[in-house]
Amino acid sequence: GQDIHDSVIQPYIGLQFGLAAITQKLQSGNGDVKDEVxxxxxxxxxxxxxxxxxxxxxxxGESTSPAFLPAVRHFAAKFxxxxxxxxxxxxxxxxxxxxxxxxxxxxxIEEGLSNIRRHSxxxxxxxxxxxxxxxxxxxxxxHRRKDLNPxxxxxxxxxxRAAALGGKTDVFTDGNNETVVSVRIPL
Length: 187
Description:
Blueprint: H1 2-27, H2 34-60, H3 68-83, E1 86-91, H4 99-119, E2 124-132, E3 135-143, H5 156-164, E4 168-173, E5 178-186
Parallel strand pairs: 1-2
Antiparallel strand pairs: 2-3, 3-5, 4-5
Helix pairs in contact: 1-2, 1-4, 3-4, 4-5
C-alpha cells in the first residue's frame, strides 16, 4: 500500500501542482501556456512509462531500483525540475544496500521530498546517506523558518517504513535551523 501511495499517487500530486499553475496563468489572462502544457505532457509520459515498469517489476517480483544512487539522483533531478526545489545529494557510492532496502529508502526519499515541497516554504533540500557503524543513516534536511515552533511530528509513512526494516525515525531542528528527518536502519 505504501509503495502504491508513494510511486503512483505522488506523481499525480506533481501533475496537480503543474495544472494549478497553468490554471492560475490562464485566469490572470495569460494564455501562453504551450510550453507548460508540453512539459506536463512529457512528465506524464515519463510517469506512465515508470508506472508500467513498476507494475512489470511487481509481476516478476523484482526491485524497482536496479542501481540505488543513480535512481535517486535521476528522481531528484526530475523532482527538482517539476517543483523548483533544489536538491543536494551526499552519499558514498559503496554503501551496502540490498534490493529491499534500496526500494524502501527510495520510497522514503520520495515521500520526504514531497513532504518538504508540500509542508514547508523551503527552496532547498539535502539528502545524506551514510553508514555509521552497523547502521545506514538517511537524513532529509530543509531550511526552516526561524519563527516556527519546535517540531512535534514524525511523518507516519516514513516511520512505518523504517520500523518495518527494524529502524527508527527522528525529526529535529539542527544548529543551522534546518529541519532534519533522520532514518536509522540496522544493516
